[in-house]
Specification:
Elements: H1 27-65, E1 68-69, E2 78-79, H2 83-89, H3 92-124, H4 130-142, H5 145-155, H6 162-168, H7 184-209, H8 213-221, H9 226-237, H10 239-254, H11 258-263, H12 275-284, H13 289-312
Antiparallel strand pairs: 1-2
Helix pairs in contact: 1-13, 3-4, 3-7, 3-10, 4-7, 8-9, 10-13, 12-13
Amino acid sequence: MSLTVQRPVPAPRAPASQRRVPSPSPSGPSRRRRREYLLFALFALPNLALIAVFAYWPVIGNAYLSLTRWDMIAPSPTFVGLDNYLTLFTDPSFIRVLSITLVWVVVVVGVSIVGGLALALLFASKAPGRRAVSALAFSPHILSGAAVAAVWLFLFDPNYGLSRAVFSLFGLDSPHWTTSSQWALPALIIVAVWKGVGFVAIVYLSAIQAMPQDVLEAARIDGANRWQILRHVKFPLLSPTTFFLTVTQVIGAFQSFDLIAMMTAGGPAEATTTLSWFIYSEGFRQFKAGTAAAGAMIMFVLLMAVTVVQMRYVEKKVHY
C-alpha cells in the first residue's frame, strides 16, 4: 500500500499593483532637506557676510552721509536732509559735470567696442603677423593707468613730444592737448580707448573662434558673401559678447579716475571733470563729505538705471 503525500499549495500572490509597499518614514526627506539647507548656509553665509560688510553696508552708510553736512573735522556730521541733492541739481557746474560724463561714457564705450570688434575680425583672419599685433594691442590693458598717463603726457607734449613731430610734417603746430579746454577731453578719450580697446578685441576674438563652423559653412554654401555672413550670422552670434562688453565697459567708464587724475586733474577749467573726479574733488580736496556722498549716490543710481535698462531691453536682442 502506497502513501501519497500532498504538498501544501502556496497561496496565490497578489499582483504587483496591489502590493503594499512600506511607506518611507516622514522624517527622512525632511531631515535630508534640513541637512542640505544647513550645508548651503555654512558655505554661503561667510560670503554673504563679506558682501554685506564690504558692499551693502558702505552703500547704506554713504546714503546716510549724503543727507548730512560734514567737513571731516567736526566730531559728527550735521543732518541736512536733501539739501545736498538740491544744491547739486541747481548748480550749473554740476549739470556740466553730468554732460561731460555722458560724452565720456558714450564715446569711450562706443569707440572701444567698434574698434575692438574691427581688431578682432582682423586678428581672426589669416593676415601675417596677426598674433604679434594682437599681443601688442592687448598689452596696454595690463599696464597701470599711471604708467599709461605718463607715456601719453610725453607724447602729447607740444614742444618735445611725438605730437609735435607729426603735426610739423603738415606744417601745423601741435595742439596743447592737456592744457587746452578744447583738446583736453579728446586727449583723455584717445588714451582711454587706446588702453581699453585691446581687451575688447581679445574678448571678441575668443567669441569669434568659438563660433560653430558648420553654421558659417552653411551660409557660404547658400551663397552668402563675407558682408552677409558678418551681418546676418556673426553679429547675431556675437550679441552675448557685445552685451557683456557693453555692461562692463559702461561701468568702467563711469568709474574712470586714474587717467584723469594723472593727466588733467579735472581741468583745465573743469573741462575734464567727470562724475568720479567730482566726487574725489568734493570729498578730499574741498572736504565736503556730504556733497561728495550725494554725488556718489547719484552715480550709483545712474549705474543701476543703465544696468537695468540694458538687462531688460537690450538683452532681448541677444541671441544665445
